[in-house]
Amino acid sequence: MDPLPSPVPPPAASPVEWPGLDGADERRFSLFVIGDVGIEVRATLPDVRFVDVVADRLAYAPARAMVAGTAVNLARCATRYFRSVGVLGKIGDDDHTRTIRRELRRLGADDHLCVEPGTPNGVSVMLRDRPNGDGPAGGRGVRLLVVHDDPPCRRLTVPEVRAAAAAIEGCDVLVTDGYSLLSPVSRAALHTAAGIARDAGTRVAFDVVPHDVDARLAADDVLPMLDLADLVISEAPTVARLLGRPVPCGGQEVRDLLPCLDRAVPGRPTWLLRFGPTSLERVLVHRRGRPPVEYPTGYRDGVERVGFGDRLAAAELYRWLSGN
């Protein structure tokens, strides 16, 4: 782990100003991420709106297949900030396996992947249609994400996490996310990882995804993980729905949500609550007993949305570990 933070970040209003969204001048700290790892096919359809598709349709558009998933997506950005990045996830055993491991090497991330023999890797398809200029999504189109319904990552086990205990104990921050809560097997593994981290003095960060987690899990399946976290990243509407509260539409309504968070989560995590027209434009930082702080993220019309959240999270994690 790094010694006491140095240099101390300047009193900037946003991580956009320091350390910035394109990486840090000095790579410091060690990050270990547990999450999804697989193959994703991405395409933006410039001449198609989903609402207009009423029959079979052939569309030509830029499309690419890439190694992705929550763990890889964050690691891809985190390697621009952190001295070392480790990735733990469960993957399949097929022609994609070698490609996945080669991509981690290319990124410079440490491979702690567990292979499940005889199973295919998870594959997802992300399509975004043509922007129509109407509504909060008008400037970026609507996203359709189709995910393998039984990916190997849902079967990450407690023993596999314990095998990576030394790496978890030796890092500055363990980063996890809600997709691992969707299965009782990987949920138990995630709780074990957080326990290992806390016992070793490693900080724990948790990303509340998927954004409709409230429709997939009861609050009692999510809140215990939030109580183990030192830092929680969430879109404000997601955590509001999870707690059965009205969805906040503006900054004051997000601030009104803070007492509910404090009652629901007995610990004292730092909350990074994203909000705005697309739930990505602004962040309200909250910690029990301290005045909230608000900052812009730099996201606006014309900024590529794919990957922006991971860039922002990497900058926020680096800034947080630096003592600001």
Automatic annotation (TrEMBL):
A Pfam family of the record is PfkB
Cite the Carbohydrate kinase PfkB domain residue spans from the record.
67-246
Judging by the UniProt lineage, the source's domain of life is Bacteria
Which Gene3D superfamilies does this UniProt record tie to the protein? 3.40.1190.20
Q: Which InterPro entries match?
A: PfkB_dom, Ribokinase-like
**Protein known as:** Carbohydrate kinase PfkB domain-containing protein
